[in-house]
Amino acid sequence: MMYTAPVTVxxxxxxxxxxxxxxxxxxxxxxxxxxxxxxxxEDVLVDLKRIxxxxxxxxxxxxxxxxxxxxxxxxxxxxxxxxxxPGLVEAVALIGSDQIQNRASLGGNLCNASPAADSGPSMxxxxxxxxxxxxxxxxxxxxxxxxxxxGETSLEPGxxxxxxxxDRPAARRADAYLRFTPRTEMDxxxxxxxARVAVxxxxxxxxxxxxxxxxxxxxxxxxxxxxxxxGSTFDEEALARCAALSxxxxxxxDDKRGTKEFRRxxxxxxxxxxxxxxxxxASEQR
Amino acid sequence: xxxxVTPYKWVGTRSIRPDGLEKVTGRARFGADYHLPGMxxxxxxxxxxxxxxxxxxxxxxxxxxxxxxAVITRDDFPxxxxxxxxxxxxxxxxxDLSRNIMARDKVLYIxxxxxxxxxxxxxxxxxxxxxxxxxxxxxxxxxxxDEAMAPDAPILHHDLxxxxxxxxxxxxxNVGKRHFFDRGNVRAAFDESDVVIEREFxxxxxxxxxxxxxxxxxxxxxxxxxxVWCSSxxxxxxxxxxxxxxxxxxxxxxxxxxxxxxxxxxxTTIYLEPLAIILSARAGRPVKLVMSRQEVFQASxxxxxxxxxxxxxxxxxxxxxxxxAWMAFEAxxxxxxxxxxxxxxxxxxxxxxNVGIEGLDVVLNTPKAAAYRAPGAPIxxxxxxxxxxxxxxxxxxxxxxLRYRNAAEEGVASTYGPTFKRIGFKETLEAIRSHAxxxxxxKANQGRGVASGFWFNAGLDSTATVNIHEDGTAxxxxxxxxxxGSRASMALMAAEELGIxxxxxxxxxxxxxxxxxxxxxxxxxxxxxxxxxxxxACRDVVAxxxxxxxxLWAVDVEEVEWQGGRAxxxxxxxxxxxxxxxxRSAAKTGGPIAATAALTARGVGVAFSTQICDVEVDPETxxxxxxxxxxxxxxxxxxxxxxxxxxxxxxxxxxxxWALNEEYVYDETGRMENSSFLDYRxxxxxxxxxxxxVIVEVPNPGHPYGVRGVGEVGIVPTTAAIANAIYDATGIxxxxxxxxxxxxxxxxxxxxxxxxRTPVG
Lengths: 286, 761
Ligand SMILES: Cc1cc2nc3c(=O)[nH]c(=O)nc-3n(C[C@H](O)[C@H](O)[C@H](O)COP(=O)(O)OP(=O)(O)OC[C@H]3O[C@@H](n4cnc5c(N)ncnc54)[C@H](O)[C@@H]3O)c2cc1C
What we know:
The structure holds two protein chains of two kinds. By secondary structure, chain A is of the alpha+beta class. Chain A contains twelve helices and 14 strands. In chain A, strands 4-5-10-6-7 form a five-stranded antiparallel sheet. In chain A, strands 11-12-13-14 form a four-stranded antiparallel sheet, with helices on both faces. Chain A has a three-stranded parallel sheet with strand order 1-3-2, with helices on one face. The longest helix of chain A is centred in the last third of the chain and has 25 residues, at 260-284. The N and C termini of chain A lie far apart (54 Å). By secondary structure, chain B is an alpha+beta fold. Chain B folds into three domains: 20-27 and 459-600, Aldehyde Oxidoreductase, domain 4 (2-Layer Sandwich), CATH 3.30.365.10; 34-139 and 208-299, Aldehyde Oxidoreductase, domain 3 (Alpha-Beta Complex); 306-457 and 604-750, Aldehyde Oxidoreductase, domain 4 (2-Layer Sandwich). In chain B, strand 4 (84-87) and strand 5 form a beta hairpin. The longest helix of chain B has 28 residues, at 526-553. The relative contact order of chain B is 0.13. Flavin-adenine dinucleotide (FAD) binds next to strand 2, helix 2, helix 8 and strand 10 of chain A.
């Protein structure tokens, strides 16, 4: 096993191109526990944390650029990110403990491709983009196209994610994330739910979306949410119909972390709660 | 209540623990921290089947793997004849113990050891393990008491005949033993009762959850002697058990205690030590074995799961006149669960004239159960204390008042035999009733529950040596591992006796060759029993010091008294002599000053706890949040109040985990599905409120400072207190542990389906 720590994107691309058995990592908070559990480590490990571009966290008029290896703690501490994407930040801040927060990255969370990854629903609901790089150059894809299934991404051999992009949010728009876990911390989502809501001056819904995690092989964008809510003031009945849509959209499994039925039910409960939370936040914004 | 003024200078203070600095700097050495030159790494090959006969084991390919130095199997261990003995507080059968450590004809659970390998690297040892060919004949397995007791159940041990004098059939069975106890006529009592409530309960197995996995280094020499470094709750017990399963004289073994990262009863037995010793003997080099977390879960003792039925009959004035319990415990692969202790403790807090108790010890294809904090009692209390809550409701009585009216006190013949001496049960009830928590307001979806519990505590054997150095400081040589701060308590009691500063006393936990025999740190006995040995040895030292002063003064020893750490002449005519001065001149007055006390500690004081808990239940998800928790417990006397509170809080914290999330989940093949701390959900700090403690002090007349044990009783009432609080919040009676969100939610759903408040469980 060889450890490498390139300092430029090019160098990292070269390493990957010349070693078919190379693997990138950032915080290694998924990589090392998996190795301890018996998974063989690749022959060449490429540490991305020394590459400035991958540790970047930047905002301009165009939008946000988040380096794929930047730590969760850095994202969580960024007050402007917190006020523009409160839901994404609350999702990222839920990952692990303080120790894990200092290591874990958005790139690792998404590319590990666990159906329960906490940042997945928020990134998809906010229509983030992944900037992918290899010796062949850069390409940008919608975040929803990054993960194919448990442990499986759409990255080609030799590719890795350099950064993520998010647009600057419009006025009176906000997101929120809630997850259900038996424990308060150090737990894996039984269900995760992210919502994005936009409202008009009167607090009436102008747009809404819900994305669920941990209830299917990949994140699930719940269809029909905007149709139910646009024009409403998030009344009980409309929210209940959204909850039903979410429960319907789940394709959960039974496992030690929860039964199918329970997951479906919780997806509905969280949908109502997360939409309400996002709506409150959107109304408070100018 | 904690008396504000005591006659003591040191006892009852919150001194800094002698082992604190080493622990916070990471210098303290735990079981896995020992490294010897030339040391090999061992791994254990474990059964992939829940129940199978081992036809053959071929180790030849493993021995060919580069780096592999030794491979051992059942052929390397002697056959042990069946003999029951005490192992700490539990009963152990040496034959079963030896067969649990290394499978012989059969494997009985997934994780049962079938071979062990020592090699120069872990990787080589793992490769060696993969190269061992084991031929199994797989049998059907049983995973619950119901399956194990079914008429056509597969039999685990063909030589196991139920130990039951009343049994009609005498064939092989999965029921190891039937315990029973009757007093009065319980059936007639139920006929006369104004209210009779009978309920059934299911409890899943849980693990003690000590953070430190089992770990050992053994170095066996050419003379056939071995030195063993390991963390345990009793290195003398490790010596006895290991020597027995190896058929060695105990004196061939020296066991050196490591610091221990939690045990909670689970380290009052052995798993790895004999394997490491034999591997070391075969390889001629030291060998280290450390369990992974998965091995800890799959192969070390869980607390048994159980099925329980409890019936209680009471008169309208709240007098309980009859109580009956039936309990079937999952002993795991070999008999010997704590069901006996459950039978003894089930109704122990109460004064009940008519009692019927039956307990079954059932074997099944899961790891052999081990002791866990007040073994057996929490399971019994979960049932009894929730039924009592229903009785109180049926009689429109306050639940604390119901308990108070029936509480055992001095002079009451306990349901397990002895007549109680001075006990503090009622005082714990009063402490909770008068606590601000009891009257605090609650909001919607919130509820409050109370429950009480009992534990015997243990005395057993202890030895301690006190050496006075020439600078007047003292060392205490102790043979009881310090799990909860006992070194601090020993130093405080010694300081009180010797009259010197606690900082001038250094307590050390020393190996089996360096101090006399000590039973385990278990049964909440160490501060009581080993503390008693320390006090006796200190008194002996004081007698010697007085004698030395008398020699120096050329007076009769009767004229010398010991006060404030100094010898004083009764006349007051001589300047007092400090211990330092006496120690410095010891060579001239008769030589070194030291004393050893070796004793069987009698006069154990039993312990009671009463607890009150507030929860909030999310009606949409079934999630239970613990809002507030207060525990009152009779400590007799708190030598070091912080560590008494630590034990109380620790018991409650573990009880909360047991109540809400912890459980063994098996798939249909008998494999534990959640053998990691991610999926075996012990509470994390943010799951718990600050647990308030009220130390009740009703001194135990059997101890020089009034100590009762405090380590165990704190966990006994917790699951019931939470279940009662959930009922208060939701109107739902949970009768299955854990009360996870999934279970609570489905109970809420079932209720809303039929629109009633029927209890479920
Ligand atoms: C104790 C603990 C608690 C945890 N709690 C949570 C939790 O609450 N919620 C949650 O979602 N997760 C949790 N995790 C999982 C993990 O911490 C997160 O998924 C984390 O975000 C992973 O980031 P990382 O940088 O450490 O990933 P790494 O381990 O470095 O990488 C993970 C995977 O992603 C790949 N990868 C990493 N970066 C890139 C990149 N830029 N391009 C392409 N592939 C890449 C790696 O090759 C690897 O396969 C927890 C883990 C632990 C150990």
